[in-house]
Amino acid sequence: MTRDRRNFISGIAFLTPNILGVLTFVVFPVVFSFYMAFTNWDLTLHNQFKEDASIQFIGLDNFIELVTGDRFPRFLGNTLFFMMGIPFSVAASLIAAMLLSSDTRAGGGRNYLYLLSVIGLVAGVSLLSVLGMGSTAMTILLVGAAAGILLAGVTGGLTFYRTLFYTPHFVAGVATFILWKQLYAAKTGPVNLSLEPALSGLGGVVNTTPPAIYSTLFWVGLVLMLGLFYWGSAKLRRMLVDGDLGKGAAVVPFGLLLIPVVVGCIWGMTSHAWWLLSIGAVAILAYHAWVYSQRTDRFPAKASEGFGSGFVIALMVLVGQFVLLGLAPVFGALPAMADTTTGTGDGLTPPSWLTDVSWAKPALMIMGFWAAIGSNNMLLYLAALTNVPGELYEASNIDGASPLQRFWNVTWPQLAPTTFFILVMSTIAGLQGGFEMARVMTQGGPAGATTTLSYFIYEEGFETGRLGYASAVAWTLFLLIFSVTLFNWKFGNKYVND
Amino acid sequence: MSTIDTPQDAAVPVRPIDAMPGDDRPAPAQPPTLPTKPASKRRARGKLPRAYALHFALGVIGFLLFLPFLWMILTSVKHLQEVGLRSWIPGDRGFQLGNYAEVFTQIPFARYYWNSLFIATWVTFLQVFTSSLAAFSFARIQWKGRDKVFLMYLATMMLPGLVMMIPNYQIMITLGLVDTMIGLILPAAFTAFGTFLLRQFMLSIPASLDEAAEIDGASKWRVYWDVILPLARPGLVTLAIFTFMGNYNSFFWPLVMLTSEHKYTLPIGLLAFDSTAGQQTNLLMAAVTMSVVPMIVVFVVLQKQLVKGIQLGAVKG
C-alpha cells in the first residue's frame, strides 16, 4: 500500500464520525430546505390524515408572496429597527473597554479611595433621606450597593469590573428575559414605579412653563440634526479632497446621510417641517459641492477607495440623526402630553412598555443595550487596545494633543479593523436575532411590533406549519446575510489595511 | 574676538563624545535646590484625581448594570403580598428564604437542571471528540480532496442555523426522535465550527513533532492521541466551555422538540413556569436566580480561559 493511499484511508477514517453528523444534520437539511422553499408544503394541507394531498412544486410563488405581501417587509423593517441599537452598544463597549484599559492604580492613594467610598456612602444616604426620595431603607440599599461596588472595584481592580460588566451578556437568555419582563411590568415593575414620581414632577414643570419653549426645542432638534448632516458630509468631503474616498464609493455614504432627512420630510410627526429639512439639506450639499469645486489641490483616488471607512462614518452619523429626529417631536409634544385636562387626563405617565405598540421595540432595545455593553465586543476592544503601540501615544503627548485629539487621531484609526469586524459580525447577528426575546417577552407582539425575521420563521414554520413559505423566508434571510459577508470580503481587507 | 588659539583653551578638559554639539561650556555648578519628592511619588499624586474619576465612572456603570440583579435577588425573598410594592426590600413579613424550596415543590426544577446538564455534557463530549478527530484529519494528514471537503465545511458555517431547523425537525419526525434526549443531542453535536476552530489550533503545532513520532513507528491514532491532543488542550478546553455553555442555554431546538414536562431543559422549564406562575413573581425570581447564579459562578471560575477564547475569535456569530 502506498503512502498516499494509507494517508487517504486514515484521513477519511478520522473524518468519518464528524462528517456523517455534518452531512445528516447540516448539509442534507440545507439542500432539503432549499427544495422546500419552492414548494407549497403546509402541515395543515399535507399531513398523515390527508394522504391524497401531495406537495407541489410552485416555483417562485413563495418568494413572490414574500416580496408583495405586507408581512415580510414589515418584519424586515422591525429587524432593521432593532439593529439601529448596534452602533450604540458598540460605542458603549468601546467606552467600557477604554475605561477598563486605563491606569486606575491610585498608588498610595488607595486608602483615600476607601475613605472616599465610605464618605460617599454616608453623604449619599443622608442627602437622599433629606430629599425624601423613597424610604430610608431603599436609600441605604441603593447607596450601599453603589459604595459596595466601588469598594470591591478598588480592591479587586479592573478584573472585578470586567467580570461585572460581562455578566449581563454571559447570563443573557430565557432567565434574564423573564427578569426584564417583570422589570417592565406596567403597574408593578420597578421601572415604572420609579419613573412615575419623576414623570409627574416633570409634568408639573412642563405645565408651568410657556409651551413656546417646547416648540422651539422641536426646531432646535431639527436644526441640530441638520448640523450633524453638515458635520458628516463635511467629513466625507474632506476625505474626497484628500483622496481617501473615491467618487464611486462616496455615493453610498452620502445616500445614507440623506435617509433621515428624507424620512423626516415624510414622517407624520415632522412632515410640517419638510421645508426646513429639504432646503437645509440641499443648501448644505450645494455648499459642499462648491467648496469641493474650488479646491485645486484635490488628490485623485480610485472610484472604490475608502468605501469601508466612509460607510462606518456615515452609519454613525445616521444613527445620531435618527435620534435627534425622534427626540424633536417628543419635545414638541411634551406640553400636550403633560396637559392634565385633555387626553387621558393623567398627565405624563410612564408607558406600559412591552404591551405598547410604540414602546415595545425601544424597551427590548434598552434591554439589549444592558446585555451588550460588556459583551464580546468589549473583550475584543480590550485586546485591540493593548495592541496599540505605546510610541504613538508618547508621540501624540509630545505634540501636545488633547485627550480628544489623541482618541480621534491615534486610538480610533488603530481600532478601525476591530470596529469593522465588530460591525460586520453584529450586523450578521442582528439580522438573525430577536427570536428569544420575542418568544419569551412579547410573543412577537403587540400587533407584530417585535416580530423579527427569525421569529417570523419560527411562527410560520413551527406554529402555522407553512414549511415551504418559512423556508423561503429563511433563504431570503440567508441572502441578506450573504450580501453582508460579500461586503466584508470586498471592503473588509481594504479597510483593515488602511 | 576668538579665543580658540589661546593657551587657556588647552586646559579645557576634552568634551565627552556624546555631549551636544556646541555644548563646549564647562558644566555650571549646580545651584542649591530644595529637596524634592521622588519622581514616582509625584507622578502618583498627579494621577490620583484621574484614578478617582475612572473608579467613579466604572463604579457607576457597574452599579447600573447590577441593578436588575439586585432587584431579582431581593424580589426572590419577598413575601407574595409584598410583591409589586415600591420598596425593593422585603417589608414586615421578613425575608422569605422558603421561596427557594417552594419552587422545587411547584415545578420539577431539579429535573430541569439534570436534563440541561445531561444534554450539554453529551453534546460537549461528542462535539469535542468528533471535531478533534476531523480537525486532525484536516490539519495533520495529507489526503486527496481534503481541501475541497474543508471548503464545504467552511461554506456551511456561513448558513444561519434557522435554515436547518425546519428540515431537521422533519428528519426528527421521520426518525421518531421528537421529544427524546437523543433528538436534542445529535443535531447539536456536529458542527463545522468546532472542527474549524480545532483545525486552526492544530495547524499551529509544529509538524516535526508528528514526523518524529511516525519515524518511531507510531500509528496515526497514536500521533493523534499521544502527541496532538495533549498539545491542542487549550483549544479543546475553549471549545468545550463554549459548547457546554451554549447548549446549557440553548432555547430554539428544545422549544420545538420537547413536549413532555419531565424532559424540559432549564430554559424551557423556566418559560413554562413563567406562564404558570401567575402573580408569584417572587417564586419566578427565585427560579431565575437559581438558573443565573451557577452561570455567574462558572464565569468567575473560568473567566481567564473564556476571555482568551473570545479574544482569539472563538465565538460564533
Identify the notable features of this structure and list them briefly.
heterodimer; A: 498 residues; mainly alpha; 19 helices; globular; B: 317 residues; 13 helices; 0% strand; disordered N terminus
Count every beta strand of chain A, where a strand is a DSSP E run of 2 or more residues. 0
What is the succession of H and E elements of chain B? Answer: HHHHHHHHHHHHH
Structural class of chain A: mainly alpha
Percent of residues in helices of chain B:
55-70%
Question: Which protein chains are joined by the largest interface, and how many residues does each one contribute?
Answer: A-B, 106 and 103 residues
Could you tell me how far the N terminus lies from the C terminus of chain B, measured between alpha carbons in angstroms?
Answer: 80 Å
Largest sheet of chain B: none
Order of helices and strands of chain A: HHHHHHHHHHHHHHHHHHH
State the helix count of chain A.
19
How much of the polypeptide of chain B forms β-strand, as a percent range? under 5%
User: How many strand segments of chain B?
Assistant: 0
What's the overall geometry of chain A?
A: globular
Average pLDDT confidence of chain A is 84
What value does the Rg of chain B take, in angstroms?
Answer: 33 Å
The largest sheet of chain A, given as strand count, sense and whether it forms a barrel, is: none
